[in-house]
Design a protein that fits this description.
422 residues, alpha+beta, Rossmann fold, Dna Ligase, domain 1, D-amino Acid Aminotransferase, Chain A, domain 1, 4 domains, 6-stranded antiparallel β-sheet, 5-stranded parallel β-sheet, 13 helices, 23 strands, binds glycine
Length: 422
């Protein structure tokens, strides 16, 4: 089988490596992929948002199955275009991808169907939003409605910050049209859990839970990033909480999307906060999370391609989704300065790596040599019997992988380990 994976980050590298375990896979194309992915797939220089060219490529090369991984092409309708051209796809269609594409949509869906989330108001008029933040409880969370590269969420700790956030999104258009509508919501606190779930629109099978580390600095300080590391499973997410989430969040969401005529097929990402009043949905994503995928897929024991086909064909109820016991840890190695200004073009030496899997996110290949080309450069993932041992292995390999200006957090997993000490 010829497979095409749309996207080019660490998540896509993890998906490609897992797909390769299926014996019927003969060829994998990555559009556009990256210099590190080139070791595992044929990289084709077509951007993930260039839907016309993606469809043409799939038809010309007789692709048997496509996986659309990033949010942008999903929200733009890449799956609809590929399916119309006769290419079977893993991923939600445009109607279903709106669950990530519009925060207003997702918040109203949760309100309508009684799915637990932070209380909120929606605004399309800047004066009304400013009036609201002049009187609401503080802290308050201000979110741009549309996609904003994970940066459209501002937690305001004072009224002045809240007003600044409203003005920057709605007046100054800091996130372009994404900020034409804003959602202003109640600030919640508690451990965060990411749960990625396979679904065919009717059946939902959650994957092992995980924890992201979004801030750039140790101790969860500094700017928000695309994710500096992950661990799985998330120890705060007990079996009891998992059962509660299935009953109150996962199944109601899948059923709600069906009832709205937007059946969701693919990977639905539940960003949850475990508050004192129970689990709450912080966000939905219409895709695999990154770097969550870099710890979740290495723990998957069942065949990824078969599961993806079952999600597309509506047979997930008959398909096994099994995970290994044990734990996984991923430490992201970034370019110093990320997520702001950083230099690239430094040679990467992976030869010291002993036992981790390396998923490459931002690197280019020149004459057989890898050079850094992005903020997040690579993820180093280790699997172990315990979280402690997975972290130890991952960090030992991080120290053996070298490139100039490498930066990583020293405390990935520390908060999770503290859960065992209570
Ligand atoms: P998002 O882009 O929706 O993932 O939000 C980014 C981060 O902002 C989340 O991972 C949370 O840490 C934080 N966040 C979002 N919504 C809230 C909320 N209502 N209360 C507290 N923190 C939040
Ligand atoms: N790790 C968060 C995300 O993929 O959006």
């Amino acid at each position: 089988m010829k497979i095409m994976v749309v996207g080019g980050g660490g998540r896509e590298h993890a998906i490609i490596k897992k797909l390769k375990e299926n014996k019927s896979v003969t060829e994998i194309y990555a559009l556009p992929g990256n210099g590190g992915i080139a070791a595992d797939a044929v990289c084709v220089n077509i951007g993930a948002k260039d839907i016309g060219k993606i469809v043409d490529f799939a038809k010309t090369n007789v692709v048997d199955f496509a996986v659309v991984a990033p949010d942008d092409p999903l929200v733009l309708g890449a799956v609809d275009a590929l399916e119309s051209a006769g290419v079977p796809c893993f991923g939600p269609d445009k109607k279903a991808a709106v669950i990530e594409g519009s925060k207003r949509f997702s918040k109203e869906l949760m309100k309508k169907y009684g799915i637990p989330t932070a209380a909120f108001e929606t605004f399309t008029d800047v004066e009304s939003a400013l009036e609201y933040v002049a009187h609401c409880n503080i802290p308050v969370v201000i979110k741009a409605d549309g996609l904003a590269l994970g940066k459209g969420v501002i937690i305001a700790k004072s009224r002045a910050e809240a007003a600044d956030a409203v003005n920057s999104m709605m007046r100054d258009k800091k996130f372009g049209d994404s900020g034409t509508t804003v959602v202003i919501e109640q600030f919640l606190s508690g451990p965060e859990v990411s749960v990625l779930a396979f679904t065919d629109g009717k059946t939902v099978k959650p994957m092992v839970s995980s924890m992201d580390h979004k801030r750039a600095g140790n101790g969860d300080t500094g700017l928000n990033t695309g994710g500096m590391g992950t661990i799985a499973p998330n120890p705060f997410y007990t079996d009891e909480i998992a059962a509660e989430c299935m009953e109150k969040i996962f199944l109601p969401t899948i059923n709600a999307m069906c009832r709205e005529g937007r059946a969701f097929k693919g990977c639905l990402y539940f960003g949850l906060m475990l508050t004192e009043d129970g689990p709450r949905v912080i966000e939905y994503n219409c895709r695999f999370g990154d770097p969550e995928t870099q710890v979740v897929l290495p723990l998957l024991e069942s065949d990824l391609l078969e599961i993806m086909q079952a999600c597309r064909n509506g047979t997930l109820d008959k398909t096994e989704v099994r995970f290994k016991n044990g734990a996984a840890a991923c430490v992201v190695m970034a370019s110093d300065g990320y997520p702001e200004k950083y230099d690239t073009g430094f040679e990467i030496d992976l030869s010291g790596n002993k036992s981790s899997e390396v998923f490459v996110a931002g690197a280019k290949l020149e004459s057989g040599v890898l050079f850094t080309s992005g903020g997040r450069v690579l993820g180093v993932t280790a699997v172990g019997d315990t979280l402690d041992s997975a972290l130890e292995t991952a960090y030992a390999d991080v120290k053996r992988i070298t490139f100039k200006n490498a930066y990583y957090r020293d405390d990935i997993g520390a908060r999770a380990l503290s859960a065992f000490k209570d």
